[in-house]
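Sample entry was shown:

___
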Amino acid sequence: MRHQTRRPMGPGRWRRAWRNALRRAIRGDAGAAPPDPDDDVLHLVADGALSCALTQLMRRHGTAVYRYCREALHDATLADDVHQQVFIEAFRDLGGFARRSTLRVWLFAIARHRVLDAAKKRRRRRDSGDELEAAEPVDPQPLPGERLDDERLRRALIATMGELDERLRTALLLRYQQGFTFEDIAEVCREKSGTIRARIVRALPMVRARIEARLRAPAPTDTQDRAA
């Protein structure tokens, strides 16, 4: 039996195949987007139960938002204030949520903007001399539920993150603390996912080297701590 060779697709057939694939995608044949894990919250919003919706959001995402604010600002008290602002703003705008992202991504976009605002205000106060006390350092003790085997590693990580610029610190926190995808981080930061991915990939060797350098340094003794 003679095998028939398949003729290559000409330009016209390629164009028709592309148009058909595009039509299927527009009609939804290519698969629907995954549902928002917070769809029940959106149902509460649709029913006008905004207070119940906010309570549910805070129960699910409140601790994660606070951790992000705390690590980004290196100030536990300021992080608590920003955390409250995030959910006040969320309550105000929940009714107008446009579903262009998940509620979780939307919340962290609000958090990032409020963190940036708080950092700018703090910098202005310091520059003008109005801030009499230094910012409260990040609490070295883990939050309930966090399990840390090496306190020195945690301290080295906190110190290293504090040296990074805001865009890189935000990308790393969202990726490795909150488990965001590159696409979700891009939504929060209003950048392309490829840019976010490249930024993180380029930065990881530098971050790792700084952490390892801190871990190799001799730990301060009690006498040195008291002298400091």
User: Anything to note?
Assistant: The first helix runs from residue 11 to 27. The chain is about 70% helix and 0% strand. The chain has two domains: 37-137, 149-217. The mean pLDDT is 78.
